[in-house]
Design brief:
The protein has six helices and no strands. The protein is mostly helical and 106 residues long. It has a single domain, classed as Cytochrome Bc1 Complex, Chain D, domain 2. The N and C termini lie far apart (46 Å).
């Protein structure tokens, strides 16, 4: 049986393409580029694009950081999120947490 390996760079590239195709995300010129990647699923306003994606708008920065750290370490399991966060730098995580925690809760 052949095992398929997932590249975090391929996941990032795919999400960036989706984000670039969405006019609402494309208008997010004043936010860090890494947030555009997150917005592909969580939306530019953090409310999530579907019922399966959680609303993270206005969440506590501490909570968001803990969740991202849990995905990175494997304590919290979600294949897509684990792939997405494994290659993020500390600075990128700070940018994501800051952006979504400062949005108004919805």
């Amino acid at each position: 049986m052949t095992r398929i390996r997932h590249s975090p760079f391929a996941s990032l590239a795919a999400a960036m393409l989706v984000a670039a195709a969405d006019p609402a995300i494309a208008q997010m010129a004043d936010v860090p580029a890494i947030v555009h990647y997150c917005a592909a699923c969580h939306g530019p306003d953090g409310t999530g694009r579907d019922a399966e994606t959680p609303n993270i708008a206005g969440q506590s920065g501490i909570y968001l950081r803990r969740q991202l750290d849990a995905f990175r370490s494997g304590r919290r399991r979600h294949p897509q999120m684990q792939r997405n966060v494994e290659s993020l730098t500390g600075r990128e995580i700070d940018q994501i947490v800051t952006h979504y925690s400062l949005l108004p809760a919805r």
